[in-house]
Amino acid sequence: MAPSGSRSIKKGCQRVLYWIPVLFIALIVAWSYYAYVLQLCIESIEDTGEKVIYLLVYHVIFIMFVWAYWQTIFTRPMNPLKEFHLSYSDKELLEREDRGESQQEILRRIAKDLPIYTRTNSGAIRFCDRCQLLKPDRCHHCSVCDKCILKMDHHCPWVNNCVGFSNYKFFMLFLAYSLLYCLFITATDLQYFIKFWTNSLPDTQAKFHILFLFFSASMFSVSLASLFIYHCWLVCKNRSTLEAVRSPVFRHGIDKNGFSLGCSKNFRQVFGDELKYWPIPVFSSLGDGCSFPTCLVNLDPEQPSSPMGSNPASKGAAEGRQFPTKPLRESQSRLLTSTPSWTESDSATDKDRKGASNPGMTIENEA
Ligand SMILES: [Zn+2]
Ligand SMILES: [Zn+2]
């Protein structure tokens, strides 16, 4: 009893410690709010027009930034659907086999019914021992969260959360708005920063807030800009941070561009079909996080059905398969067609159609 008790205390302490970076950021943001709004705008700026404009723009950026940060922190990472978990009988079967090859044989049989295209470096089915599941494409086990995370990008200590399929858009917006926040402060604080050095600011404590505000905002701007540009490049190439470090392995071999559909479609996969939702921290990413369109699927001779097909749902139904009858949502399949559509979402009608054509469908979409 004692070891498990001490282990849970240790875990509890760890969980508290993980919040320290988030608290650190929150304190800096709170101080920056006080320094900018009270010390700079209200105390130091004399021109009313300038004051009002600065305060208005500042608050819009501040709200968007805090909203995106909040969403990145508190959106739970998505885990693989139950279809990817081993059934009780499969678990027993796997435990009985001690040889790697016969275990692989069992896993390959299960994987046949799932939309899994990626493999380990040695060509084996990707299996998570800890979660007892077949890892969907782009899914990885996070040692901090102790869970398999869909389209895992990285575990971010600054948000104390895994960045993955469910919150990658929020993370991108968090980077964008925090960069905008720092750039705006740097730009509007510049003239008062210069006044500090020419001794033309009144001798109050506000001048030191103005000084440190400029230093911290410009410093954060540089690091945030590099991180934001890097992630824009990743989105453009349709790679996660993990995939940029180690390229995904498909049945036909390593392919670092295996999930790329072209820059604009790659952005749509993360930010959604409707431009109006792009800057807002609400979920609008396409897909279910378990399967991703890949233009190279057709090269895979063992792949049961192809998202490139004109009508994968009816094709799959004709063959009597269960899961791969529809490896991709309509929104994902649309990414594979050449015409971009910035139109209103037709997800409701899609759903009706899905229900009618495939009532036995068990995949849950995020909607
Ligand atoms: Zn796992
Ligand atoms: Zn994690």
UniProtKB/TrEMBL annotation:
Catalyzed reactions: L-cysteinyl-[protein] + hexadecanoyl-CoA = S-hexadecanoyl-L-cysteinyl-[protein] + CoA
Topology in membrane: Multi-pass membrane protein
Gene Ontology molecular-function annotations: protein-cysteine S-palmitoyltransferase activity
Source taxon at top rank: Eukaryota
Compositional bias segments (type: Polar residues): 303-313, 333-346
EC number: 2.3.1.225
InterPro entries reported in the protein's UniProt record: Palmitoyltrfase_DHHC, PFA4/ZDH16/20/ERF2-like
Cellular localization per UniProt: Membrane
GO CC annotation terms, alphabetical: membrane
Primary location class: membrane
Transmembrane region(s): 16-36, 52-70, 170-188, 208-230
Pfam families per record: DHHC
Region entry Disordered, spans: 303-367
Keyword set, alphabetical order: Acyltransferase, Membrane, Transferase, Transmembrane, Transmembrane helix
Residues annotated as domain Palmitoyltransferase DHHC: 125-246
Comment on protein domains: The DHHC domain is required for palmitoyltransferase activity.
Family: Belongs to the DHHC palmitoyltransferase family.
Protein name from the UniProt record: Palmitoyltransferase
Species assigned in the record: Sander lucioperca (Pike-perch)
